[in-house]
Amino acid sequence: MLEAYFPLIIMVVFGFAVAFIFMLLSQWLGARRGTKEKQTVYESGMVPYGNARERFSVKFYLVAVSFIVFDIEVVFLYPWAIQFKELGIVPFIAVLIFIAILFIGYFYEYKKGGLKWD
Amino acid sequence: MDLFEIIFYFFAAIVLVSALVVVLSKNIMYSAFSLLFTFFGVAGLFVLLNADFVGITQIMVYVGGILVLIIFGVMITTKVTGVDIKEGISGKLQYAGAGIITLLTAIFLSLMFINGKWITGSSTDVHATIHQIGTLLMTKYILAFEAAAILLLIAFIGAALIGRRKA
Amino acid sequence: MNDLLLTIIEVLIKGMVLVTFILLGAAVQVYLERKISAFIQGRIGPNRAGPFGLLQPFADVIKLFMKEDIFPKLAFKRFHQFAPVISMGIAIVVYAVIPFADPVKITMADGTVKEIVMGVAPNLNIGILFILAMTSVGVYGLTLAGWSSNSKYSLLGGLRSAAQMISYELSMGLAIIGVLMICGSFSLSDIVTHQKGWFWHWNIFAQPLAFIIFMVSSFAEMNRTPFDLPEAEPELVGGYNTEYSGMKFGMFFLAEYSNMATGSILLILLFFGGWHLPFPQEWLGLQTGSIALGIVQLAVFLFKLLAVIFFIIWVRWTVPRFRYDQLMHMGWRMLLPLALLNIAVTGIILFII
């Protein structure tokens, strides 16, 4: 196992090292003449109003919650999917039941008008 | 010290240090972000123990889903730096509660560690655990598989209800 | 220890070649993007730097490096610095599990035959899952960039991109299941080997619905038009990279083009037979594992890659941008049930035949 993954570990270190060097180069090579006006955030030429880290719509949060549920479903389906040919029909029906159970929740949410951005 | 041990200690160090940052940092954005490294370190340890599917699942579910949720949660709060939790009597109570829970968890974990049946064999020629997981999940543990579906259904409907309450 | 050192050197060399190709590839893509858009809009496009403006991307890179690197005063400096590193690092790391051709056998000086795999770790048995997982990590680069800039445009762009990416990742993951059921492996080389022979063995003919879902979702994952809302210029200025300048902006740009190439490569590997010709490669009369066959396969791969990239750029100037509610509607209420349906239908058909 380690032999197979060792190149991957090196590649992860290498890839991030390259990106890090790019970041450092960008800071060293570029000029540094920050003025007060330059360092304000862009707001279409107006003086920035208030703080950007205000509250935002809770919908983003709900999308993330729904995502987790379905992501776990997907993860459960993967081991079955690659063994599909060996396993036969009974596990397939089990998976259909699995999907159907989750689809109840999905359908409920759908009918209640969730899962959309209004 | 062979390569396996070096890499093990590397990942273990990542997990421990980043977990400490999660707990001790005053800035909750740092906490949330170093949780990313904790999850990665744990995934690395899983892979090192020949459980590559569990490792990649760890990244997909925890890093890809749950941590996004946590970061969204952090971003919703406006006060990020220097959050002071030790105010008044309730702060003291929080400390006490946290201490008790930590102690109990630590005792529980050490008991598990001492009494657990650990598999101490060579694990050099194990590969492709995914196919075995697939087979076992669909034969021996098929009931648990369906139960997981119901659990997810409950979680989903619960989330939907909470999310829509005020609308 | 000697073996270990050899592995490290081999991986580092491959990594350097890959990074060079990623950077060059991004330059080529930028050039193609500008030339093709110019062609579609009846303009000339870049034509000053070098013949046909070929050196334009390099001039751009040098300019970006020399530009001033501005921190907004209210920005969260540490995260502001590291967000582009995450984006670009992930974009590079993803290439580790991608195979580019069949392994090539090389006879060494002492007569032993050494097999060289065309890729860093393409035989990993979690190949495609690794790419999916890394894509989901890529969300952090954009979210942190948006949040740390402390600008309203950036924050909204970062949030939008995060929500968009996680929504479409689901349909992407579910669409792949159909392919996995047919091929029975997560390893990308196995999936490609399964599509060997005539072109009707390609997965696109076995999994047309999965192909459409996967293609649409990968457009969304790549933040390409019609799904480029996180950086929709008319409404969000630049989205998450509004407050970035110099090469840090360039790094986001690079990561984006690199992801575009990754997405195209995945489409090719999963649905278009990878490096295989549309007819059995035995007809070429080349020996398996020979260098000549390796070169032919690489050329086929590159040709398919350029074709897909051309298609992506073409789409940009053909389809208008979605509105955000339409985008969410499409991801959650159309693609997701369709992908689930695809699994059921694939299963039933596989049992019948």
Highlighted features:
heterotrimer; A: mainly alpha; 4 helices; B: 167 residues; 6 helices; globular
Describe what is shown at a glance.
The complex is a heterotrimer of chains A (118), B (167) and C (353). Chain B is 77% helix and 0% strand.
Please characterize this protein's 3D structure:
The complex is a heterotrimer of chains A (118), B (167) and C (353). Chain A is an all-alpha fold and 118 residues long. Chain A has a domain at 61-112. In chain A, 67% of the residues lie in helices and 0% in strands. Chain A has 4 helices and no strands. Chain B is mainly alpha-helical and 167 residues long. The model of chain B has no long low-confidence stretch (mean pLDDT 82). Helices cover 65% and strands 4% of the residues of chain C. Chain C is built from 12 helices and 2 strands; from the N terminus they run H-H-H-E-E-H-H-H-H-H-H-H-H-H. In chain C, helix 2 (56-66) crosses helix 10, helix 3 (77-93) packs parallel to helix 10 (246-271) and helix 4 (127-148) packs antiparallel against helix 5 (152-183). The longest helix of chain C is centred in the first third of the chain and has 39 residues, at 2-40. Chain C is globular. Chains A and C meet through helix 1, helix 2 and helix 4 of A and helix 1, helix 2, helix 3, helix 4 and helix 5 of C.
